[in-house]
Write a structure and sequence with these properties.
globular; Rossmann fold; Ribonucleotide Reductase Protein R1, domain 1; five-stranded mixed beta barrel; 3 domains; OB fold (Dihydrolipoamide Acetyltransferase, E2P); alpha/beta
Length: 296
């Protein structure tokens, strides 16, 4: 009997595919996880036990960095956030929701604007102008998948797990097929009546890319932000957090407090008005304790 460590790269029909230094081992989880109400997730660093007959069992989950999404991916280091220019239409509000959520989860984000070839040049220029603000506050933004192809594999460091995220129909699986030619992910048509995509990804799987892994996950168009503490929300807007060191009052919520640096920069148009409006909208959502109906 021997023990080995690895990363869960796939889950199907109750079996876990674990990549080890000697290859992928398909294994089942011990019943102890059910007793502890634990469930291994794709991305988990785990320990497996292999007996003399070659049977293997997942026996231990090593400490996690995080666990994000449903179905979940564990130990996510970075998110490649796919936002479409059209079909579904580009939305700054949705972009801000995703960025707030992942900032709360302490996961770095790179933004990729998809479907730029399907939109009129004038409309695309307006979207790129908005995205230039996000570049200015520290987010890396790609608008060409060729550029993503050239750079992404070199950006993923040893055993890092990146995950694709974004609204349904934005083109995550299409991008994955470009990045990883043997991924063969199913792509789906857009529901024109709802202006949103059909969920074409049914499971979570890690694909080897560069020195690490890239995960494709089921798309989702709404995020629950109500678990964020109201007085901490401002810290997840990166430019607000940076500016707040110059606010008159510690713990300033950037509402009606005197000497607020965020309100000053907003008035000077150094903070984009839509970002502040989205901040207020999310505050209301958290206060009410529920996601607005139009976002479900």
């Amino acid at each position: 009997m021997k023990l080995a460590q690895g990363i869960v790269v796939g889950l199907i029909a109750g079996y876990y595919d674990v990549e080890t230094t000697t290859g992928i081992v398909r294994t089942r989880a011990r019943g102890v996880f059910r007793q502890k109400k634990q469930k291994p997730a794709v991305g988990d660093r785990v320990e497996i036990q292999i007996d003399d007959q070659g049977m293997s069992y997942l026996v231990k989950i090593l400490p996690r960095l995080n666990r994000i999404g449903r179905p979940a991916v564990a130990n996510v280091s970075h998110v490649l956030l796919v936002i479409s220019a059209i079909e579904p239409d580009f939305s700054v509000e949705l972009l801000d929701r995703f960025l707030t959520f992942f900032s709360w989860q302490r996961v770095r984000v790179t933004i990729y604007l998809s479907k730029t070839d399907l939109i009129e040049a004038e409309k695309l220029a307006k979207i790129k102008q908005k995205l230039s603000y996000y570049q200015a506050i520290g987010y890396l933004v790609f608008t060409d998948y060729h550029e993503v192809q050239r750079q992404i594999s070199t950006m993923i460091q040893d055993d890092q797990i990146w995950t694709l995220a974004g609204q349904s129909g934005a083109g995550k699986s299409t991008l994955l097929n470009h990045l990883k030619k043997d991924a063969n992910q199913t792509t789906g048509a857009i529901s024109t009546s709802l202006n949103r995509g059909k969920h074409t990804t049914r499971k979570v799987e890690l694909f080897k890319l560069g020195a690490g892994f890239l995960a494709d996950t089921p798309g989702f168009s709404s995020i629950d932000l109500t678990l964020i503490k109201l007085n901490e929300l401002c810290n997840y807007f990166v430019e607000f957090k940076k500016a707040s060191v110059n606010c008159k009052f510690r713990g300033c919520q950037h509402l009606k407090e005197p000497g607020c640096e965020v309100k000053k920069l907003l008035k000077e148009e150094q903070i984009m008005s839509s970002r502040y409006e989205d901040y207020l909208a999310i505050r209301t959502e958290i206060s009410d304790g529920r996601i607005p109906e139009y976002l479900k």
